[in-house]
Structures are given as C-alpha cells and as structure tokens.
Trk-type K+ transport system membrane component (Alpinimonas psychrophila), 474 residues
Amino acid sequence: MNEELAQNAPAWVRVREALEGFARRSPSRFAVLIFAAMILVFTAIFAAPFSGANNTPTALADALFTAVSTICVSGLSTVDMATHWSPLGNAFVFIGTQIGAIGVLTLASVLGAIISGGLGLRAKLMIASDTNPLRLHAGPVPEGQAIKLGDVGGLVVSVAVSLFAIETVIAILMMPSVMAAGYPVGESIWYSFYYAASAFTNTGFTPNIGGLAIFQGDFWFLSLIMIAVMLGSFGFPVLYALRRHLFHPRKWSLHVKLTLTTWWLLWAGGILAFLIVSPIGSTAFRAFDAGQRIFEAAFLSTMARSGGFNIVDISQLDTATLLLTDMLMFIGGGSASTAGGIKVTTFAILLLAAVAEARGRSSIEVFRRRVPSDVLRLGVSVVLWGATTVALGTLILSNITDAPLEYILFDVISGFATVGMSTGVTASLPDSGVYVMAAIMFMGRVGTVTLAAALAASQVGQFFNHPEERPIVG
C-alpha cells in the first residue's frame, strides 16, 4: 500500500523523499553532493553573459574555477576579479562566499532541513559533525565536545549572526579609509562590504583595480583586514563559546583552548620566522623599514591562516619565505571555520602525540584533559589526505606548466588550504591545469571534513583482537 502511494505521489515529493533517504544513509556524501550542486549552479551563473563585463560570456574553465573558488572560499582566480565581472557578477561572487563560509556539512544539513521541513536529529548531527566529525562516531560521544546537540540551533543562529554582525562592523570601520582613497560614496560602501566579507570568509578577493596596493600605507584598513581574517579563521564553535563565556576561560572546552593557543603560537612564531628569514632573501621585505617589516610579517602570518590577501608580490619572495608560508598555509586555521588546511587542532594533536611518545606516555594529555586515541587516528587520516592531495596536485601540474617547482607547490597548497595567495602560476595555467587546480580546491575544502566525518561514522566496535606484533619503524 505504501509503495502504491509512493508511486502515485507527485514527482517533487518523490525527489524530496529520495534526497531525505540519501541524507540519512550518508550525510558526508550528501554534503559533497550539495557542494557540487552549488558549484554547478554558480558555474552556469558565471558563464552567462550577464555576469561578465560588457555582457560578455565567460569561458567554461574560468567560470567553473571561479565558482569553485567562490563556494570553497579559496580566493584564487584565473581572471581579474576587479574588471572581468559585471556588477551582477560581483554580487554573485559576494553571495557565493557567504554560502561557502558556513561550512560543508552545515550547508547540507540546513538544506536538508528545508527539504524535510525541520531541523531533526540527523540534521543536528550533521551540523555538530561540521564542528567535530566525532559527532558521527558510532557509540558514546566524549564530553567536552565543541558543540553539544542541544546547542546546535544556537550555533546555526550564531553562524548567521557572526557573518552579518562582524562583516557589517568591519565594513563600517573600513568606509573612511575607502573614501579617503578617492572612491565615490556608493563604491566606497560596496567595496567596504566586499572587503569585509572577503576577509571574514577568508576568501581574499579584491573588488577594486589595484587591490590592496591602493591601501598599502593605510595601517588602519590593513589591520581591519587582519582582524576579520583572524575572527573567521578561529571557527564558529570558538566564536560561539567566546560569545557565551568570553571572560570565563574555565568554561571553555578543550577544543576552544587548543584552537586559540595553537593559533596564537603559530601566528607569533610565523611573525618571528618571517622577520628572520624574509629580509635576507626577499627584495620585497628589504624595501621596508623596521616598522613596516614587523607589520608585513604580521600581515603575512595572518594571511597564511587562509586569508589570501597580500601587500607584497608573492612571486618576489625567496624560496625560504615561500616554504615557510607553505607550512603555515598547510596547517591553516581552526576547525569549522572559514579557513582551510588540515586545521590547527589537527596539528596540535599530532604535535602532542609526538611529545607524549617522546616522554614514554601512553596517552595524550593537555589542559588536564586526556585526548582519546580515535582523535589521533582521525588527525593522521586528515594529514595523509592533505599531503596526498598536495603531492598529486604538484606532480600533475608540474607536467602541465614549466613554472618553477616552488611556485607550483605554493599555488597547490594555497588551493588545497583555500588560502588564495598565488605566485602567478594559477592565472597562467592552460584549461587542463585550471581543472586540476579546481579539483584541488574542492578536495581541500570538502574533502577533509567529509573524510573525517565518514571515517568517524564508519568506526565500529571490535569484538576480538589479533595477536600483537611490532614492525620496525624509523
């Protein structure tokens, strides 16, 4: 009887039920499907004549690449973002970055909730797993998670409020600088909101001709860019926790403490390393005075989190500076943030595991908390996924372009970690290379979180153990 009713149901009902069933069976695959669908929609939009300047259609490779870069908040581009797009095209770029910023599984779960008519348990699990893939773990969930299921609704509201409030405040504070640069009032308002959104979402697109070079001496404007990138790269669970318990650190979860501590240590360490390494080999740094060098080092260390903006020509940096930036970009920002990379908590867990092993301890302990072994296994999987993606991408592109290897590696890591800084390799790629780089960006943004969620969901109990034997390692 139910089968007969299902067959006689309208087409849209059958499609909705099919999507609901697919989302229940495989949330991570559903998330990939949703992100891919969004990219296809925006590819069609960007390829249309109305999105191009002078009503000119955009080539498929460039349209697809821009769609991937926008939805994955990567910031890399094969066209001049300031001149290639019409006002409507730029508006779609702005909208796409907002969609991509909220997260892979969160987007999928919200759309799933719209389809099913409510935010059920499965949708809440998917949103919670966007902040922590272990939420899809089969079995008891450890205490101290980034977001509890009861707080998921508050998190969704927090994401929307954070996007709107932070970007609005940053944009208002930017307006005097943009107007002082000589832009009319209307353009100043648009540029301010575009820059604020591009910074908070860690995209790195610039809407004006000349980009940040126009504001190179405006430390107020550049500092606002840095602040917005920092807030975006902390992650929505961290912002949610800080909003509730800003002055009560004892109430912060382990995730919040680990994210903030590792983020600031990497940021400060990056500044110090850039000040030591860059002035020696990079002509761009030698042109600055002492104060400007410190600011540029801080700016570059911040943008390596996944910000994507730059006030020096990346191609003019020496090999050591490029390699240092590669390492910071690969680590990226906080989990469930607008930043990319393997995430700072993943890096922290691996580092803590190495320290624990060196001290002969059987467990990872930090901030008076013990980290379960499955978290370490998940972290190792994410790092291996990232390293494999970068290695294969670099190998393929090295056979497509004659650019120096350090330039190719830089752009591949920038694409995987959705950073957006480029040595110029990406813009000069043929169509085949453009498609490869688009795939790298997609895997970097979607692959890590969905891989982690899929691995966490697939873990099952083991009823017996095989005999133990130790292979030689090292």
Summary: The longest strand covers residues 364-366. The two ends are 63 Å apart (CA to CA). The chain has one domain: 12-458. The CA atoms of residues 23 and 30 lie 5 Å apart.
